[in-house]
Amino acid sequence: MPVRQLPETIVNRIAAGEVVERPASVVKELVENAIDAGASRIEIFTDGGGRRKIAITDDGHGMTHADLGLAVERHATSKLDDEDLLQIRTLGFRGEALPSIGSVARLGITTRHASEPHAWSLTVDAGSKESIVPAALGHGTRIEVSDLFYATPARLKFLKTDRTEAEAIREVVRRLAMARPDIAFTLSGEERAPVTWAAALPGAPGQLTRLGDILGADFRASAIAVRSEREGVAVEGFAASPSLTKANALGQYLFVNGRPVRDKLIVGAVRAAYSDYLPRDRHPVLALFVTLAPQEVDANVHPAKTEVRFRNAGLVRALIVHALKEGLAREGKRTAANNDAGAVLSSFRPNSAPNFTSRNANWDWQRSPSYPVSPAPAFSSATAFAEAPQAAFDVGTPTADVRMEEAPTDLMDRPLGAARAQVHENYIIAQTRDGMIVVDQHAAHERIVYEKLKASLAKNGVQRQILLIPDIVEMDEATVEKLVERAEELASYGLAIDSFGPGAIAVRETPSLLGKTNAASLLRDLAEHMAEWDEALPLERRLMHVAATMACHGSIRSGRRLRPEEMNALLREMEETPNSGQCNHGRPTYVELKLSDIEKLFGRR
Question: Residue 143: is it exposed, middle or buried by C-beta count within 10 angstroms (0-12/13-18/19+)?
Fold first, then answer.
């Protein structure tokens, strides 16, 4: 078959295959055009998941008669002042979107520029451009796309259900709305109730408002402001505290010079920054905004402009890690329970209440300020607090009680207060001036030991204790080989081991911080973690895994009774330890209940 020049319509449809992948791609391109046109309000309407109809209306600058005619031609754009692709300051620049959309659907554009006496309208039907005619429109631009892919029926078979396509459109609009909180967005359609994100104030407060509107109130309540800047590159945004996590990384958003992008760079950087706070199977929620000179990033590496390439990717990654670590260290004592006491309080409330029905007639308002609103099931003191949510609070006699001792005034004023009791041989009850605190003694001490190990290693190495008689731990040969291969890394944390035959390991030294520890259990846990390591994992990360495992074994165990002075000493150490709000596995170490919340629980407020 001889080589021949393809017709313009076929060329446009081939280009559409790269740019217009699904209805969400159309919405993305058209909304980006509206943003580049200086719009302050953008309305998006879809029908049939965007397959039947997509309508985008904005109040931007609009187009003149001449510009409208050129806008639907291939590679025609108003966004490149010259031919330098390294000075891109707009979201769009290729000039492919409108002709590509018009080649596979029915495209209608109505626009009015301030210099024009009236609006103009243009229709493109499967690549066939009609004449420009006068139209009625106050200002801005309205674009309608109907019967998407009707000119290429084979593409329709690859679309998902209307609901799935509508959700993809929603995600695209969410990302663009997060990138530009100064613009008001309205998303409506037959598949959903209208959603409006009002324009927010400039700066970080407005940014957080928009992120909270989109990512939810939980994110707003736990958001930590982060910022880092070096060599003309700035990273800022908000990251949720380690208490708010997801099972995947879909809650992590990256914006480069206002452009929503997907980059594997952020996944690795975020994992490194949160390595001390979260287990490997949990991922934080965050939105980071990278600002740098246009020539330092290449946005022309993907047809849909969803990926970028940094000239100095190492610097960007380092700034992301530094910004997140600094923010997490600053807010290290925030936990899920401290962010929202409502969920904690709800577990205290019984599902039944006293039955005042028989006494309603004789109710005396002078004696009781609370009127029985409606009849309720009979209340039984023997059963109400024996419900499933209350099983954990059937504590019996406290294992350690310091109520008779008068707590020093200065302890009551400390952030974690004065210890009052220990229940279930694991939870410390402390009293503050304005509430009470429940501490998980094992989780809290685990974080303390871990931070001490890290500090000791950074300063002058971990202090060791030589065992008078080495512990001999029997394990399978494969596990022994793995541990012996990592003996040098383990030695840096004070754990000296060597082979003791084909199926055994001799433990000769252990870290002093751990005190008396179960060497067999510790080595087995270390072997399990090492099985997940990749050779590409940095040595520092591997050492942190070792430290976390050691800290778990060297901390106060659940079930150990503590004396009052031990409990207070633990509280004071928590106050001085960074990141003490969570243990090494991301669980909260303490729960705080304000006195006002407790009074609400008992109807005093």
Answer: buried
